[in-house]
UniProtKB/TrEMBL annotation:
It comes from the Bacteria. The lineage of its organism: Bacteria, Bacillati, Bacillota, Bacilli, Bacillales. One of its GO terms (molecular function) is protein-disulfide reductase activity. InterPro entries: DCC1-like (IPR007263), Thioredoxin-like_sf (IPR036249). This is Thioredoxin. Pfam families: DCC1-like (PF04134).
Length: 134
């Protein structure tokens, strides 16, 4: 079994987690948002780990006790969901030739973040991106 830690503030990530749940016919995958304080406590996520998770998708394999991130996390997810097996050759080629993680990071840096805890009756305050993430 694997646990997918996705960013609940990211609409693209939330949509992907919904697809993972829908297509996981063998119940091999659990998806959780690391933005949920109960999840942080339940899995003892450290501030360092939360910082890393804010930049990349993370998967924890409960059988092997291994962590995977970025393109390698995508690889693990696709291995566990038959409907995504067709993506495995492309992911593997991208890993072998060294552009998979770079491509993953490029996409991840440009995703939209909509923090749910920064909204009030006047609207939502969006966090400022650090310089250099343009």
């Amino acid at each position: 079994m694997i646990i997918v830690f996705y960013d609940g503030w990211c609409p693209m990530c939330t949509k992907a987690s919904e697809r993972i749940r829908r297509y996981d016919s063998r119940n091999n995958v659990t998806t959780v948002s690391f933005r949920d304080s109960e999840i942080v406590q339940e899995y003892n996520l450290t501030p360092d780990m939360l910082e890393k998770m804010s930049k990349r998708l993370y998967v924890y394999n409960t059988s092997t006790k291994e962590w995977f991130d970025g393109i390698h996390a995508c690889d693990v997810i696709c291995k566990n969901i038959r409907r995504f097996w067709w993506l495995l050759p492309m992911i593997r080629v991208s890993i072998v030739f060294g552009f998979g993680q770079w491509t993953y990071d490029w996409i991840a840096k440009r995703r939209k973040i909509v923090p749910s805890n920064l909204c009030d009756e006047h609207g939502c305050q969006l966090p400022q991106r650090p310089k250099g993430n343009e």
